[in-house]
């Protein structure tokens, strides 16, 4: 009678009886009391058919014992003395779908409710980022009317405004380490989302586990899940089985003691362990990558359990707003479908995930690379805006854009008789009329070899025209098409006024002029041959500087000869500006130069960074703190070397401290003229001012 009543109980986790499978030693589970404890009664084997039949008979009972604790965010139904059945499985699935849809809508609403980049960037910087997005999308062939530009701007605005790496606490300086990007084909670009948490590709171990859990407790396991016998120890098979069973029971008991709702494991879960966890109403996600587990631990605050001993210290379970598992189908997906786990509602400053929709899987890969770069560039612009504010600078935009190309040069190329040579250098130079830096005030000039090539080509045209005019009517004059490329024509023009010069002398002067400068044009052509790809913003995410170290106390004796250093912005070869200053203020460092004769400390040296025609010298010395009560903080100001005026003293902000030192050098070498605000003076902050940073009655100066 009891069995018949139990068989009428609807399913909770298991809604499809035909898909349930049990081990060969299946046991019968019966309800004992209101606590829903389980008792296992051993059964004899009667063949596969009898075992399957017995599994079908006990399935409703098992389902009644495995009710999810907080599925769909609702309170558990109170137990009634009359044995009222729980909600039907169809109703539970419908409620899960509604909760997942609501979660997706909240993620999409973040794009419109954040205020966009206008909330964190000034207008000049905002226009600069918009130009970057349009330029990068055009490079991958995305139409301007596709709507992707605004979607990317909204997604990036959420990531930059919400995620704050703690660089001083050990976090990496690149924001992209904490902003993941997932591609889910299908839908429209407007369906893209920003999730304040983690999204990763995985599914639940069993399809009947709850696909939505509100405020879940999350446990992370990377410990061995199977008993490992010592190789030197020989035991009987029965003892081996008892030890294995004891290990499983101990593991399940300790995991269940932490009362998690979901367990993430980095390896496949054995069947006995899985059964034990399911009896305790714990959902399982297995074979999760270690990198994903570390990201989940960061965003949810969960402690990673690496061994059984960790359970004795009560490992901390993580939490978030909601867990949802969604399966998407699209013809461009492997096997046409893929499942994703969404952990939303985490601490937004610790990380987030951008979910891209609206294209095929391969096309989303190109857009993903663009979004990844724009996240890093916009983050740098955001930090640079704080730096300009601290420097009391009035920023001006750099000059770029195809509309700023020289119309005179274009018309000259069109009218040139030497079309191939004349247009080659001009076409190469026109490619540099693009945004090539994340800094709005930076204009990257084209390589000097191309500039020189263009100058020589114009000189060749000039000297050829002069030569043709002077040799007009002469029978022995060379044809214009036979003239080699190169030359300035200075000597030849001078010889025009020498009436005694013969025709042979004129040809020799003409040929020598062309040969003298033809090597420059050849060098430019070789440069273009070795660099056939189009100029792109991707190629300008770093700077190469020559670094040298000199001792000021020894008459600027060279301690380290000039060495080339390639700095890739916000990578391992870069360093935050605040960390660079902290290292400079450390008085315990001695000279680490190549010269073993120098015994002076590092703060008595001069660090020089050379790039192109520019040079930045960094020195340090004693200086009374401008604001005594702020002697424990880094203060910054600038002093004009031409008129003696200075900007106000301000405390370095956290955003300025996180700014890239490589970018700081780039803006110093390439920035447009920056004037101090409030009309302090009309001189350039980078070229005419000495920028100062003070801490503990010491000052670091950039000049």
Automatic annotation (TrEMBL):
Its EC number is 2.7.1.150. It is an enzyme of class 2 (transferase). Keywords: Transferase. This is Mitochondrial distribution and morphology protein 12. It comes from Coemansia helicoidea. The lineage of its organism: Eukaryota, Fungi, Fungi incertae sedis, Zoopagomycota, Kickxellomycotina.
């Amino acid at each position: 009678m009891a069995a018949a009543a139990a068989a009428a109980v609807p399913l909770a986790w298991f809604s499809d009886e035909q898909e349930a499978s049990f081990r060969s030693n299946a046991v019968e589970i019966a309800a004992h009391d209101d606590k829903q404890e389980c008792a296992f009664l051993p059964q004899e084997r009667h063949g596969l058919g009898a075992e399957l039949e017995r599994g079908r008979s006990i399935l409703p009972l098992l389902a009644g014992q495995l009710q999810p604790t907080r599925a769909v965010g609702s309170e558990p139904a109170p137990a009634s003395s009359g044995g009222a059945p729980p909600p039907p499985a169809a109703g539970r699935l419908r409620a899960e779908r509604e909760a997942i849809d609501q979660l997706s809508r909240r993620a999409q609403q973040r794009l419109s409710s954040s205020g966009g980049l206008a909330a964190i960037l000034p207008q000049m910087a905002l226009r600069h980022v918009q130009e970057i997005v349009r330029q990068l999308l055009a490079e991958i062939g995305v139409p301007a009317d596709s709507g992707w530009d605004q979607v990317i701007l909204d997604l990036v605005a959420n990531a930059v405004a919400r995620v704050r790496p703690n660089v001083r606490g050990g976090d990496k300086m690149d924001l992209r380490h904490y902003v993941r990007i997932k591609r889910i084909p299908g839908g429209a670009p407007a369906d893209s989302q920003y999730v304040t948490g983690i999204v990763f590709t995985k599914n639940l171990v069993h399809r009947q586990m709850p696909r939505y859990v509100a405020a879940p407790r999350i446990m992370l396991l990377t410990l061995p899940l199977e008993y490992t016998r010592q190789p030197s120890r020989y035991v009987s098979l029965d003892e081996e089985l008892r030890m294995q069973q004891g290990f499983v029971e101990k593991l399940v008991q300790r995991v269940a003691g932490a009362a998690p709702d979901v367990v993430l494991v980095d390896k496949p879960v054995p069947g006995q362990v899985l059964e034990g966890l399911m009896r305790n109403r714990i959902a399982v996600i297995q074979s999760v990558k270690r990198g994903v587990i570390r990201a989940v631990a960061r965003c949810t605050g969960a402690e990673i359990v690496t061994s059984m001993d960790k359970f004795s210290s009560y490992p901390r379970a993580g939490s978030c707003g909601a867990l949802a598992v969604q399966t998407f189908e699209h013809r461009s997906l492997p096997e046409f479908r893929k499942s994703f786990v969404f952990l939303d509602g985490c601490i937004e400053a610790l990380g987030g995930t951008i979910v891209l929709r609206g294209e095929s899987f391969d096309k989303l890969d190109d857009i993903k690379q663009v979004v990844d770069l724009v996240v890093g560039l916009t983050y740098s612009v955001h930090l640079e805006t704080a730096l300009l504010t601290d420097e009391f600078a009035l920023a001006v935009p750099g000059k770029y854009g195809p509309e700023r190309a020289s119309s005179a040069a274009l018309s000259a190329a069109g009218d040139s008789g030497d079309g191939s040579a004349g247009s080659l250098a001009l076409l190469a130079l026109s490619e540099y009329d693009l945004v090539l830096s994340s800094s709005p005030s930076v204009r990257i000039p084209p390589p000097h070899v191309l500039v020189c090539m263009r100058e020589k080509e114009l000189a060749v045209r000039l000297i050829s025209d002069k030569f043709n005019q002077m040799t007009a009517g002469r029978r022995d004059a060379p044809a214009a098409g036979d003239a080699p490329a190169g030359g300035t024509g200075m000597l030849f023009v001078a010889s025009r006024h020498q009436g005694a010069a013969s025709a042979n002398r004129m040809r020799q002067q003409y040929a020598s002029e062309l040969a003298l400068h033809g090597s420059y044009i050849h060098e430019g052509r070789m440069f273009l041959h070795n660099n056939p790809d189009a100029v792109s913003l991707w190629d300008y995410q770093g700077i190469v500087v020559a670094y040298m170290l000199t001792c000021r106390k020894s008459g600027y004796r060279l301690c380290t000869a000039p060495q080339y250093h390639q700095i890739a912005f916000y990578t391992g070869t870069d360093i935050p500006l605040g960390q660079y200053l902290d290292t400079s203020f450390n008085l315990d460092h001695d000279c680490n130069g190549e010269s073993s004769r120098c015994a002076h400390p590092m703060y008595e040296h001069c660090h020089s960074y050379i790039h192109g025609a520019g040079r930045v010298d960094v020195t340090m010395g004693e200086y009374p703190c401008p604001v005594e009560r702020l002697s424990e903080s880094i203060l910054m100001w600038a002093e004009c070397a031409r008129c003696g005026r200075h900007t106000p003293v301000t405390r370095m902000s956290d955003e300025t401290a996180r700014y890239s030192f490589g970018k700081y050098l780039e803006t110093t070498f390439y920035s447009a003229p920056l004037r101090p605000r409030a009309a302090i003076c009309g001189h350039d902050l980078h070229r005419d001012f000495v920028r100062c940073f003070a801490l503990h009655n010491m000052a670091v100066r950039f000049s």
